[in-house]
Structure prediction request, 519 residues.
Amino acid sequence: MRPEEAIGSETVEAREARAPFRFPREMVVGLLALAVAWEIVSWFVPPFIVPGWGRIFKSLLGLPLDFVLVTLARVVGALVVSFVLGLGLAVAMYASTPVERYARPLVRLLMAVPVVCWILFAVLWFKWVEFRIAFVLVVVCAPVFLVDALDAMKGVSKDLRDMLRSFRPTRVQLFTKLVLPATVPAILTSWKINLSLAIRVVTIAELVGAVTGIGYGLVVAQELFSVSEVFAWTLILVVILFLAEAVLTRVEERILRWRA
Amino acid sequence: MKGAGAIDVAGLRKVFRHTGGGEAVVAIERLDFTIRQGDMVAIVGQTGCGKSTFLNILIGLERPTEGRVAIGGRTPYGDFDHFRGTLAAVFQQDRLLPWRTALDNVRLPLELLGRAPDEQARRARAWLDRLGLARFERAYPHELSGGMRQRVALARAFVIEPALLLADEAFGHLDEVTSAALRTTFIDLARTEGHTAILVTHQLEEAIDMGGRILVFGRPGALLADIDLHSWPRTSVAGLRGDIQRMLQSNAPLKEPPA
Ligand SMILES: Nc1ncnc2c1ncn2[C@@H]1O[C@H](COP(=O)(O)OP(=O)(O)OP(=O)(O)O)[C@@H](O)[C@H]1O
Ligand SMILES: [Mg+2]
Prediction:
């Protein structure tokens, strides 16, 4: 955690994530330019390939917006479950080397399986649709929480550990006063990673069998050959993702005030 | 807790076996000496002569390969938890927890000892105040200068009123003025609190300032001289410094003791 080492290699995004809020002028200009270009293209291309903004917004108003809430609820629910599972297992693996030795390869295996396979397994194994979706999300997100948290726990500096140990802490104190707080930045980062992962995966998971949610909305739009509806849903997804990331970045700033 | 007792070092040897097929490193060849309760001891020696290793063994973080170190008859590694609240160390780097404010860093050892929250705050404040940091109790470590951070680390060591106080090149990397000031603070505090204090350093001035006893370590980890400043035949600081320097350079005790 030496700030002077990080600065050179930092991305613009990482630096901005910690800077105080500033109106994102470049971002807005860029997005507007894209939107204008889109509109111009739509004048020359048939609407079933590139629909203009007028059509997209008309579709937007006609969409069942409660699907958004349903999808969000699925994402948040699955993330909370994944987090509890991932952190719980990380603590167990941190506390016991045998547990870590057995569990590591299994977790690797889980992470190597493509999302599509999980979706097919979910369909083959489970009947209840909500459970299928939750299963896919948890099996994809929990390992990320687990591995990131465990690596951060293992990476706690020996110097700090020795310092704390010189005061003779209990095992629990060593964990709560040093290991856990040292892991907070990694946990926040894995929330960010998993949030965008979950939002992208949930829609695919909803393609199979769900009769609510944005994924289902996309299937319906596709069956109706309504390109503008597909675009409208996509727009909603992207906006949700941006908003969620902005919120998490604020939270991170708050919690990580202590960082240089 | 008053008095940890005398420190007995007998036939101490420490070998690090490097993992991965590398050669074993003898960090401490052999050490034998006794430190009485309340002594102020400075350990000097060239880099790599096992000073930090010796201190880590005293703290209980490393286990002796052979021989024995006992504090008041108990071994710090074996009777690890016996030394709860008894000893405190200041390291070369401040080793503050970056997510805690200065005050909360000083409170940490009291938290670990399970003291009541208001007592923690009161004692931590008193020590920050004594080290001239009252205005900075809410600052995070990254907002403090190196010297200020090291003072917070000092407060964190003193706050539990340890019977045994250890410092491993705690002031060496700061500028001369800051380092001299902190050293003086350390020595004064250790003396007024009546702690046994062991200060590892490679600066002879620092060792002579301690005004007690100087253990000169040769490489690898062996005692070249055990100098009691009150009974050493040299009267001048320059002469004493010359003696020590000669021993460090030749890595051997003086052939003929100074007249
Ligand atoms: N954990 C370790 N594993 C392997 N070798 C070690 C370890 N700690 C110390 N050593 C080796 O032991 C020897 C003594 O190291 P030590 O840090 O005790 O020296 P020192 O006197 O404190 O030196 P300095 O003045 O540079 O701090 C060195 O050769 C070092 O490489
Ligand atoms: Mg050292």
In short: Chain A has one domain: 68-259. Residues B 16, 18, 25, 27, 45, 47-53, 202 surround adenosine-5'-triphosphate (ligand 1) (CB under 6 Å). Chain A touches chain B through 22 residues (CB under 8 Å).
